[in-house]
Design goal:
Length: 115
């Protein structure tokens, strides 16, 4: 079970990796730079930083944001996997998104049970 501090760290890490992956994908061009893929990476980066913000403030709404964050991270990881083809940066993004999705899902579930 992830602690809140671990979940915050996962969210911040995923935010950073998604931003790095955007730059990587734009430089690669082709399918990597397609609008929908870049948008998914942007959405993931944004929801991750938002989720971390909510937890850092100890907002009572953080479980709701964590639940959304987990789903967006799942979508982003799957979209990166579609383009991975042995690309190290894409693999890093997949792994980071999956780790964050798991951590946020656990955080949302733990808080729901506590309520």
């Amino acid at each position: 079970m992830a602690t809140m501090q671990e979940c915050i760290a996962s969210c911040l890490d995923c935010h950073s990796v998604c931003l790095e992956t955007i730059s990587h994908c734009l430089s690669k061009g082709g399918d990597h730079a397609e609008c929908n893929h870049i948008r998914v990476l942007q959405d993931c980066a944004q929801v991750c930083i938002t989720s971390a913000d909510f937890m850092l403030r100890n907002s009572p709404l953080h479980p709701m944001i964590c639940r959304i964050c987990a789903r967006v991270c799942e979508i982003c990881g799957a979209d990166c996997e579609r383009l991975a083809e042995g690309d190290e940066q894409m693999r890093l993004c997949i792994e980071t998104c999956r780790r964050c999705a798991e951590s946020c899902a656990e955080m949302a579930e733990a808080e729901r049970k506590a309520a």
